[in-house]
Every structure is written in structure tokens, then in C-alpha cells.
Design a protein that fits this description.
- This protein is α/β, with parallel strands linked by helices.
- The strands form 2 sheets. The chain has an 8-stranded mixed β-sheet, with helices on both faces. A 6-stranded parallel β-sheet has the order 11-10-9-12-13-14, sandwiched between helices.
Length: about 375
């Protein structure tokens, strides 16, 4: 089958882990024998230096897929969604026209995220009479208290109604989509795949207990609460370490918080991790912990579980009764620092009760 993948964003040399799961899906489809082409509209904010914007369409051979790239500038995307949507859709159509000249007409368009890739895919689908499938991952559609613009809501409605199939990465996300489009009959749940590199690895005895946390350094991940809970749970002389991977707007604040707590020796900010280093960190850790307020799926939790590590998670919506059991670790309420502190201590005290191989098997059989 010839597949054109249409993502809202896609990893590249500049942003190597941006929506990496789309890249890994594309690679898996290629390994299954499909011919994969990626149409990559790369959005750069208006504050980006003008000289960084290259006009025209670029073509890259990623080995498993040919990628067509067009760079566009965005301007206050949250405040002017319609303006930015139109720019994205126009750029995506240009990429499609160029790609089909060389790659031929695809059998299916496979979009990731309704805004704006799904919207663009349905427009192309209608114009060129090619079936379209959309997979939704967007956390803004499930985040409690999140204000979603009318433009976004209309985009989701159109994408659901005009896609042959509309795939959600979790039951919670499907429930949110159903509230937006109550009469939708094409909603299915297909979870994000876990890369085959993330498989059971025995625990490494390091002489200290290592907690690992990975995510964008943004408010919804609650890294500030994790640091507070860690400080509350352990004194500065205990042989325990917290390693935090990721980058984001709160990096400086978190660094200052760690210094004020005098925990630089125990709490390490690792910066952005590539996939190989991420796997190494999972293997070296004893427990994965992330107190997110919400998740559509929660790939990092599942990658840690696949490696065989117990996790500490909040009840963020990314797990349900079929994908979670208490043999995998501890699930605590959102925004409960005391419960988080207790869980950090409990996982060390009760570590022998967790079977890493069983955690891995359970995760890989339910995801």
C-alpha cells in the first residue's frame, strides 16, 4: 500500500524528538512493506530569524520514507488560529501536489492530529478522491479546564466527519471527541505503538535507588511538585537520585528550585534526550515517576513499563481498567504532593513485590 503521512509536526535534525511516535509509526509501516511518504509542513514561530526560512519545497530521504518539507512561519497561533490554519493547509496541498508527481497517487492519506493535519488531509481527500484516516493525539481536547477555540472545535468536527476512520489513542480521548461530535460513527481506539527497542531489561544494581522522569518541562507535567515531594520524602544524605529528562519553558525555574532546596547532588536535569539515551535512562533507573495532570496516552510511562520498571503515575486519564493494575506501581490522585511523597518512599520499601518481567509483559500485551 502507498501511504502519504500528513502530520501536524514531525521530528527532524533540529527537533529530533518532536512527536517521535509519528516517525516510529512511519518506520513500522515501512517495515511491513508499505511505501511511505511524509508531507512535513515545518512551522516556525514569527520570532524565528527570517534567514532561517527557506522558500520552496525540500526533499529528504529518511531511509524508510521520502519526506517532502515546506517551512512556513506562524504568527500567534493561539490568537489567530484561522490565519495559521489556512497557511498550513495551503502548504500541505503544495507538498501533496509535488509528492504525487514523483511518488504517484497514494492509496490512503494518514493524518496525525486534527489541527491542522487532519483538516488539511480531508481537504486533499475531497479534492483528489483519496480516502483519509486521522489519528488524534491532542491533549488540549482532554485537558481539564482547557479553553478550546471555536476554530479548533470546528476543525475537529470536520475532520471526524470527513475521515474514513478517526482513531483515538485512548478511551478517554475518544470520550472527549464524542462530546464534540456526538453522532460520530467512525471513532476507534488504537493506542500509540511502543518501539520494539523498549523491551524487558533486568534491573542494574547501582548501589543507589534512581527515579527517572521524562517529559516537556511545562506546568501540566508538575515537575515542581515532583521536586517538592522528593525533598519531602528523602533527606539530602540518602542514597537516592531523581533524574529528569526533557526541555521546556520551566527549565530555569526548576533549576532554581533545585538549588534553593540544596539538592543539586540528588536531582539532575538531563536536558533533551534522544531515543538511544532515553532507553539507557530507562534501563539505569529503578522506578519511573511523572505526576502529570492529564495525558491522552502516556507513552513515557509505557516505555518504562515495557523495560520492566514499576511506575508512579497520577490518575491522569491515560490509563483505564484494561491498561493498569496495581502490580505495575502506584497510581495516586492528581496534584497530591503528600501522596506522591508517600509513593516515592513506598516503592523503595516494597520494591521486591514488583516483578519487572511481568510488568513488561502486561504493558506490551495491553497497549
Amino acid at each position: 500500500m502507498k501511504i502519504f503521512i500528513i502530520p501536524t509536526s514531525y521530528p527532524d535534525d533540529e527537533f529530533p524528538v518532536k512527536d517521535i511516535f509519528i516517525n516510529e509509526q512511519a518506520m513500522a509501516l515501512s517495515k511491513l512493506g508499505h511505501t511511505v511518504t511524509v508531507l512535513h509542513v515545518k512551522k516556525l514561530p514569527s520570532k524565528q530569524i527570517v534567514s532561517h526560512i527557506k522558500s520552496g519545497i525540500q526533499r529528504a530521504d529518511d531511509g524508510f520514507a521520502i519526506r517532502y518539507i515546506k517551512i512556513i512561519k506562524t504568527f500567534l497561533e493561539d490568537k489567530f488560529p484561522l490565519l495559521n490554519k489556512n497557511a498550513f493547509v495551503n502548504a500541505m496541498r503544495e507538498l501533496f501536489v509535488e509528492a504525487q508527481k514523483v511518488q504517484g497517487v497514494p492509496d490512503v492519506l494518514y493524518a496525525h492530529f486534527s489541527c491542522w493535519a487532519g483538516y488539511a488531509a480531508t481537504e486533499i481527500s475531497k479534492e483528489f478522491n483519496i480516502p483519509c484516516v486521522t489519528m488524534e493525539h491532542s491533549g488540549r481536547l482532554v485537558q481539564p479546564g482547557q479553553s478550546v477555540s471555536k476554530t479548533v472545535i470546528n476543525c475537529v468536527k470536520k475532520t471526524v466527519k470527513e475521515s474514513e476512520e478517526f482513531l483515538c489513542v485512548s478511551p478517554g480521548l475518544r470520550a472527549s471527541i464524542r462530546k464534540i461530535v456526538p453522532d460520530a460513527k467512525n471513532l476507534s481506539v488504537i493506542t500509540n505503538m511502543i518501539d520494539s527497542r523498549f523491551e524487558y531489561r533486568p534491573r542494574i544494581n547501582k548501589g543507589k535507588f534512581v527515579f527517572l522522569s521524562i517529559g516537556r518541562l511545562v506546568a501540566s507535567k508538575r515537575f515542581d511538585q515532583l521536586i517538592d515531594a522528593f525533598v519531602q520524602a528523602f533527606d539530602e544524605n540518602e542514597n537516592v537520585e531523581l533524574r529528569i529528562g526533557g526541555n521546556g519553558e520551566l527549565k530555569d525555574k526548576l533549576e532554581n528550585k533545585i538549588k534553593l532546596c540544596n539538592r543539586e547532588k540528588q536531582i539532575k536535569l538531563l536536558g533533551q534526550l534522544n531515543r538511544s539515551v532515553t532507553l539507557e535512562e530507562y534501563i539505569k533507573c529503578d522506578c519511573f515517576v511523572l505526576p502529570s495532570t492529564w495525558e491522552t496516552f502516556g507513552l513515557v510511562y509505557r516505555e518504562a513499563m515495557a523495560v520492566g520498571r514499576p511506575i508512579i503515575t497520577t490518575d491522569h486519564g491515560g490509563f483505564d481498567s484494561n491498561t493498569w493494575n496495581d502490580d505495575c506501581g502506584y497510581m495516586i490522585p492528581v496534584n497530591d504532593i503528600s501522596a506522591l511523597s508517600d509513593a516515592l518512599k513506598a516503592v523503595i520499601l516494597n520494591y521486591d513485590s514488583f516483578n519487572g518481567r511481568d510488568i513488561s509483559k502486561f504493558c506490551l500485551s495491553t497497549c
